[in-house]
Amino acid sequence: MQTWSLVSICVLLGVVVRWGVSLNSYSGAGKPPMFGDYEAQRHWQEVTYNLPLQEWYFNTTDNDLNYWGLDYPPLTAYHSWICAYIAKTINPEWVELHKSRGYESPAHKLFMRATVLVADLLIYIPAVVLYCLYLTDGSPKKKVSTLFCFLLYPGLILIDYGHFQYNGVSQGFALWGVLALGLGWDVSGSMAFSLALNYKQMELYHALPFFCYLLGKCVKLGLMGRGLFLLVRIAVTVLVTFALCWLPFLSDLNQALQVVRRIFPVARGLFEDKVANTWCSLNLLIKIRSILPSQSQLYLSFACTLLAVLPSSIRLLTKPTFWQFKLALVNSSLAFFLFSYQVHEKSILLAALPVCLLLNDLPLMVIWFLQASSFSMLPLFLKDGLLVPYVVTSLAFLFFSIYLLSALEHSSEEELRLGAYHKLFFCLPKMDLACIVRWKFYISVAAMAGLSIAFVVLVPPPHLPDLFPVLVSTTACVHFMGTFIYFNIVQFSGPPSRKNQKKNN
Fold first, then answer.
1. Which of 17, 75, 126, 473 minimizes the number of CB atoms within 10 Å of its CB?
2. Where in the sequence is the signal peptide annotated (predicted)?
3. What is residue 78's three-state secondary structure?
C-alpha cells in the first residue's frame, strides 16, 4: 500500500512538471508563415476533420502539403481526427478549414496541452509505472526512485510539452511492447509495437531488436514445434494489426502508396539542421553533401547503419534474453541516430527511451547519456523560448537521479561493467577505469553547462554565425558515439550478476 502511495506521488509530480513546462511559449508562437510544430499538430486536426479520408495525404486545393502536410502513419491521423472532433465541440474556430491557419488563443493552447497530457496519462505513464514496478530489481524504494527519475527525463517533457509533439504516444506503445515481452506475453508485445510503428515510422529504430528477439526465441523453442506455433501467432498478430490500421487506405493501391511516400520522404537529403549525428559532425571536415550525389548519400547511410546495427542484432538473435533485448534496443536506436538518413535532433528521444530502461542497472552511464541527449536539443529549446524549463528540468533530473539512485556511489568497475575494457586493451597499463569514468562525467557535465551558458550569453563572430549550434551538436555527437561503443561492449560481455536477478524468459 505504501509503495502505491509513493507511485501516486511520483506520477503526480511528473504531471506537475509536465504542466509547468506547458505554461511557457510553444514552437512557432506568433511566427508566420509556418508557426512551428504546434501549428502542425493543429493543422492536422483541421485537415482530418474537414476533409474526406482519401484526401488526407494528397495535395489538393484544400490540403496544401507544403503547409504541414501529414507525414506520419495512419494512427497519427486518427488521433488528430479524435482531437479535432473534441476541439470542434468546444470551439469550431479551432479547426475551421483554411480560416483557422495559425490560430492562437489561451483557451486553444490549454486544450492542446491537455491533449498531450491525457495521451501520456492513458498510454505512456502507465507503461513506465508497470515497467519500473515489475521489471526492475531492488527494494520498493529503489523501484519508486527509478520511476520518478524515468518520468523526470527532461528531453521528452520539453519536446512534447514545450516544442509540442505527441512522442509519448509512440514511445508509450513501444514501452508496452517491451513490458509485454519482459513478462513473456510475446503476442501482446508484438501487437503493441505494431501500434507504435503505425503511429510514428521512426519507431523503426527499435524494430530490429523486436524482430531479432522474437525470432531468436522462436528458434530457441524449436521451429518444428512450439517455436513455429509462436512464430505463426506473432506473424498473424502483426499482419492483422497493420491491416486494421491501414484498412481505410487499402481499397486503393494509389492511396496506400501515397501514404508510404509521405512517411518516407527520401528526397530531403542526408541531413537538414545541426544534428548531433555522424554525418553532420563529419561534414565539418568533409563536405559529404557536396562531394556525393543524393542517391550515393542514401546508399552510404544505409550501409553504415546496417554495419553499425548488425553486431548487436546478431548477438540478440543468438542469445534472446530480456537483458540482451534491452541493450540491443539501445544499440539499434543509437546506430540509426548516428548513421541513418534524414535524422532530426528530436530523434535522440528514440534512443533515450531504451536507455531509460537501464536506469536501475547502470545509473551513472544512463544519467550521463540522458543529460547529453537533452543538451543536444539546446538550439531547438532556445528557438522555442524554453531556456528556463530546460535549465530547471535538467538540474532537477541531474540532482534527483544521482541522489535517489546513488549513481556515484554505485560506480565501481564491476557495477559499470568495465571489465571487458581490460580484455580489449590488455596492452595498456592497469588503470582505475571507474575513477576515470567519474572524472569524465564531471568534466562532461561542466562542459555542457559551460556551452549552454556561452550559447545564451555570448554573440558568435559574424563569420561563424552557427558556431554554438555546431559546438553543441559536435559535443553531443562525441557523447553519443562513446555511449554507442560502451553499450555494444556491455552487450558482448556476460549477463548481469545480481543475486536477486529475475529469470528472463
1. 126
2. 1-22
3. helix
Of 243, 179, 241, 246, the residue nearest 210 (C-alpha): 179
Q: How many residues does the chain have?
A: 505
Phi-psi region of 504 (alpha: psi -120 to 50; beta: other; left: phi over 0): beta
Tell me how far apart the alpha carbons of residues 191 and 241 are, in angstroms, rounded to a whole number.
6
Question: Is residue 80 a part of any domain in this protein?
Answer: no
Q: Count of domains in the chain?
A: 1
| Residue type present at position 269 | G
Residue 374 CA to residue 482 CA, distance in Å, equals 16
Q: What is the pLDDT of residues 132-144, one digit of tens each?
A: 999 998 888 999 9
CA distance 69 to 80: 13
pLDDT at 228: 92
pLDDT of amino acid 134: 92
Residue with cell 509533439: 165
Q: Is the dihedral of CA 92, 120, 354, 284 positive or negative?
A: positive
Residue 249 domain-assigned (yes or no): yes
Joined together, the cell numbers standing for residue 352 give: 533515450
Q: Which domain holds residue 443?
A: 1-29+104-492
